[in-house]
Amino acid sequence: MYKYRSFMKKFFLPLIVMITLASGCKKIDLCTWDDCQATVPPQETQAVQTYLTNNGLSATPHCSGMFYRIEAPGAGEYPTMCNNISVHYIGRLTDGSIFDRTTTQPVLLDLSKMITGWKNIMPRVKPGGRVVLYIPPSLGYGPYEQRDQSGNVVIPANSILIFEVDLLSVQ
């Protein structure tokens, strides 16, 4: 029994201490988001670009393949993935139909639980800001249609999503 304890102290205890110390040095920031980690197929980026061109719209390309236009930058602190954001928004399809919108009351959203297109761009807008998002399918709902409470399809599969978002506050 003595040899076993001696062996444990000599080899495993230092190993456990080293692993513990090393893991303590590596800080993981759960509030940051690598907005370029997910990219879309080139045909999706081209489809959004074609929509913008055909409608005479200008927008900034993003490294992920989506586009956005900041209409008002806002002021204060940028939101992170650890924030809830209070917003007014309208969600449209490229045919102009509205699939979702806030009513007169703003809605409070956990940014970390939003679709990738929102996660990519909302941290670039401060409270009081306004942004338009042009989200390719892969950064939205992809090949999955979205239905309302009655079972009606409100967002067809593989849809480009357009959101006009007013960021009211960051919490």
Describe this structure in words.
With 171 residues, the chain is an alpha+beta fold. The protein is built from 3 helices and 9 strands, in the order ααβββββαββββ. A hairpin with a 4-residue loop joins β3 and β4. The protein is globular, with a radius of gyration of 22 Å.
Low-confidence segments:
15-26
- One letter per element, helices H and strands E, the order comes to HHEEEEEHEEEE
Q: Which word captures the global form?
A: globular
In helices, the fraction of residues equals: 25-40%
The average pLDDT is 88
Percent in strands:
25-35%
Give the N-terminus to C-terminus distance in angstroms: 57 Å
Classify the secondary structure makeup into a structural class: alpha+beta
Largest sheet: 7 strands, antiparallel
What is the number of helical segments per DSSP (H or I, 4+ residues)? 3
Rg on CA atoms, Å: 22 Å
